Structure formats: structure tokens, C-alpha cells
């Protein structure tokens, strides 16, 4: 009997949302993993902002990066799967939830920390004419037109709806940035339903801040509700119209719509009802914290400070619930210290009836607290690399340090495949053996071919097989990428997809968790197959240490004659390069460059079909093509060149035109490389020097098509590709010089 080296997944914890309390859970899992626990983080945000630093951001003291936590990096370090999406349905009785566009997913334990959003439906016209402050992640992008505006001839007006701490901070911070620092001339109006500002605090707080607002010429309209928001401005319930060019809504939040049908006990406003252990009052498998939760019998304001303080309790109680231990009770103090930003690097302090007026000393205290919170989740130690064995150390000293097998961290996806030279030699030796045994190899395997073309009595079919490791931890997206990656060989061969067989290796897990993996993977794959007119005809599954997804695909060949390239014909690439180095950088923890947004951009490229590009090419002719995948642009390009004429054509690349994902070039300059990089470089050496040269060896999963097109049609084809919003470029030419080499222009 064999013992598995990996711990099987036995239970599934789903973290819904990346709020302030949830990041504490993730850090706890980094520091102290739970063996046998599968963790999935679902978030609409990749970079989650810390609300405490919003005043400083609005004042221009912090950048986007300064105030955000990279959830994809936290998830990676915690060993959690990260799904970038929003939940649209929850069935707490069945322990099932649905991410938009995905099949249903099961869980054993669910933790909800998704915050809330302003109730834009409560005010007529707000949805069309106002900017909601929450979610803050979306506010940052929505505010840029306001912040970047440079009015020359007219006075602009900003109306802020909400007289609480959030509205006051926004008014004073924006005023200082735009009017004091940038010397613009904007009029600010602060509108509140309550008869005083800061109504969530004692009257002393309002009395302290009102002189500050008046000194900055911020007009307050208090004790009156908003009736409607129009293109002209804000109509108050008393009939008064406040003209405004921009309206910001800092109003009371509303819960996510899916909670209403979830079966969970809710409070009178629709928020998740929890007890003082943060456990749902109706379902012991659900916990909630932050704005989305309402502690029954001990209500607290919807303030970020409580979400932060709930983090340790939520973390401990999730662990205790998994092990069926007694839960801890949370007793947050009724009076808490609130530090409210007032612009000009100042803050006021409020705790119960105790109030301190705005000062720079209080701002320094606030800044210290805020930066310390961000650093707890951003300045994490790099992922420890496994120590090489004595044998590996010896072989590295002997000059084998370029071997992927000796790499401390081997890349996944196409970066996990065998190098081209090893594959080529292995196939050649196997063929030699069969010939020596007297076999006639009429259908020889060719390493420079994307697929095999087989003549049948009725049709000519094209077949290919491809498999990738789990470079993406979202199984639904992984299934889509794997199916598109396999079909890409058919597109490059001018074939129409017909059917596919799946080959799945699933990590060891409890049977229902494996079943959910199969559902998610095949749903993503089958959706991609059906979108291209193909069907899943069957397949095979097995269990192993790591997740791997592959497909054997069959297509119907085109009957169009293949164009014969001429000297000087153009090379067009239909997708940007850099997938391999970005995924490698992210895996290594290089979050300064390969952050979650860069990773998501690479995933989006992988999840984009090559069918549109192939169809555009087909509209102009049947051109020689290949898809750029694991062996990189250089090796796949040489294989394409070897199929032209007598097989000795050369490639001349103009790397100034090479389409690149950001920040691929910066990562290369920083020394980051995929584990397949060295093998790819040895398999296709190039003559010339260029900063982007390493990227022609970068392995691509789901890379673009490389086509040889007639020089006279190249501009028209490229324009058609660009019109289809494909990041295509003309990157060089074919030279029929008999040299069979790569030259860099």
C-alpha cells in the first residue's frame, strides 16, 4: 500500500469577500495552515482598499497601491483558491452558493465579509447621476474624472450627500486637495438628513467640526432629505435645488440582494443576523463580520474599526467551528476611538463625549495606525523556497543550473511541460527503436506540428492533445483555459472544432470535493467547447498530487489550399507576450510588479479564444500559422518557418513592435524567469540584442496565433484584428535565405 505525500482535502471553507475581517483569516492561514482544509476566497475585488486610509488618498497623500491589500497574494500564501467574481445566489440550507457565470459550489463552512453599498435606489436619479462611495474599490476609478478635471472658464460644484464621518472626511479632504493644493475653485455642499453633522457621535463632535467646515467655505444643508438627483444637481425635499457638476453619495448602506433569498436569518434592514460569536443565528455553518453583519442584542455602527476588531474573533471561531470546539464571544467596547481626517494632514479625535480638535499630531497617530494595518497584510515574508537536496546542489555546481528540474519553484501551465529539445530527441529515439524492429512509420509524430492531420474515407480530420497544470487556482477558469488552449492547435491548423475528450488528474480530496472540482472544471471547459461548436465526447479521470487538465480535440480540416509564403512576407502575432513571467513573478511573491491586477490581466489573455483571430485571417486567405504556447515565440516561430518551402526559412523579429503585457518587461529586467525559459532559449538561439529578447522565450499558456501573411495584405489584416479589439502587432518578416535562424532587427 502506498501512502500519499500530500494531505487530502477533507473540508471546504469559503471566504466570501475580502473585507477587513477576512484578511485576518487569510493571514492566520498563512501563519498556521489547517491540514486537510480546502480554502476558497471569492471576491469582486483583487486589490481591496482599506477604508481608514481613504481621507489621505482623497487628499493626495497616498497612491492607489498605498491603500490596497492584494487579495490574490494573500490567497496564494494561504494556499487558498482565488475566484474573481460576485456571488449571485446562496442557499444556506443546502450549503451551496453560485458565483455569477459559474455552476453551483458547495461549502462546509462559509464566512461572509462583503461590506455594503449605498442604497442608490432610495433616491430618485441617484443611480444615473451620483457616484456611490462604496464599494471603495470602485470609487477610486470613478473619482479619477473628478480629480483629473481642469476647468478653465467655469466654477465647478461638488455635492456630497451624507453628513456623517464619511461625508465630512470626503468634503474636507477633497477641498484641501483641489482648492488648497491645486488652487482650483470648486464649491462644496454637504447635505445631511440629520440636523447636525457627525450625528453618530455626541453633539460635542459636531460643535468641534462645524467651525472647520465653515472656515473652508463648505456649505452645509442639514436636517433635510434628498428628494431626487438630476443632471443639474440635487433636489431637496423642501424644494430647494443645489446645482452640482458632481454628486457623491455617502449614504447608509444596503445589503447584497442575494441575502434576501439565502434562507439566513436577517435583521430588519436585511443584514446577516449573527450572535456575539459572529455565527449566524439560524445556520451554524455561516459566519459574518463587518458591514454585512448585524450583531443581535449588541448592534454596532457600520464602521471599519469594528470589522478590523472582529478579525481575530472571526479567525478563532472559524477554526473552532471546524474542530467542533467552543466558540469565543466578542465584546467590542461601546465607546471607541474615532480619528476623523479633516484635511491638511490633520485629524480630530472622538471617543464618547471626549473630543480633541483637529491637529497634525492626531493625523500622525491615525497614519501610524493605518499604515501598520496595511503593512500587516502587505509586507509579508516571501514564500520560503524548499532547500535543494545535496544531489541537486552538486549538479547545479556541475553546470546544470539551467535545468528546470533543479529550479526551487517550477512553473505551472505550459511552463510545466518538457523542453522542446528533450521532447524532440525522445521522439526521435523512440522512432528509431520502432524502425529497428521493422515497423513502417507512415504517420510519424512531428514536434514542429501543432496537430496531426489524418485522411479518412469521408473527411480529413485534425487531432491534437494538450494538458496544463493548475497555474490558475479557479477550477472553472482553468477548465476554460485548458479547453481553449487545446482547441488553439485546431485554429492554427485551419480546422473547425468537432469534439473533445477530457483527461483530468484531480488532487486527493474527500469525494464530494472532487465531484465539485469535476463540475467546475468541466462546466468551464464545456462552455468554451460549445461556444466553438464542439462537444465533450468523454474522457478519463485519475487522482494525483496535483491538479492537471487536458483535452484531446478533433476538428474537421479546411479544404482551402495553403498559401505559399514569399520572401519578405509579414509575421503577425495576435496576443501580447509575458504570461509566463507574470505568473512566475506572482508565484514567487514579487507583488511590487506582479500584483493581482497583473496576474488577472494575464489570466484574461489566457481565457481569450484564438477563434476570432483565426476567422479574420481566414477572410484574407489560408496562411501558415502556429499558436505560441509553452515553447515560446522563438521556438514556435522556428517550427513554423521549418514548414515553409525546404524548411530553411529564417525569422527576422522587430522587437520594438512586440506586444507585451505590463509589467512583463520590468519583471524580466528584475531577473524573473519561468522555469522553462532556459530550455526554450537553448532550443531557438537568436542573433541580436534587445531588452525584450528574453520574452521571445517566455512560455505562454493560451498564447496568440503567429501567422505568415502576404506583405501586401498585412496592413489590412492587422487593422481588422485591431478593430476586433485584439492586441495584435506586426512583429517582423520571413526571409527565405536558407539560414533557418532567428535574427533580431
Question: What is the strand and helix layout of this fold?
Answer:
Blueprint: E1 11-16, H1 20-31, E2 37-43, E3 47-49, H2 54-59, E4 68-70, H3 71-78, E5 81-84, E6 87-91, E7 96-99, E8 104-106, E9 109-112, E10 117-118, H4 126-129, E11 131-132, H5 136-148, E12 157-161, H6 165-181, E13 187-192, H7 203-215, E14 219-222, E15 226-229, E16 233-236, E17 241-243, E18 246-249, E19 253-254, E20 272-274, E21 286-288, E22 293-295, H8 304-322, E23 338-343, E24 346-351, E25 354-359, H9 360-378, H10 390-400, H11 420-436, E26 452-455, E27 460-469, H12 475-492, E28 496-507, H13 511-531, E29 535-544, E30 548-556, E31 570-573, H14 579-588, H15 596-606, H16 611-618, E32 625-627, H17 632-642, E33 650-653, H18 664-669, H19 677-683, E34 686-687, E35 705-709, H20 714-723, E36 729-735, E37 742-744
Parallel strand pairs: 1-2, 1-9, 2-5, 9-21, 11-18, 12-13, 12-18, 13-14, 20-22, 28-29, 33-37, 34-37
Antiparallel strand pairs: 3-4, 6-7, 7-8, 10-19, 15-16, 16-17, 23-24, 24-25, 26-27, 27-30, 28-30, 31-35, 31-36, 32-35, 33-36
Helix pairs in contact: 1-3, 1-8, 12-13, 14-15
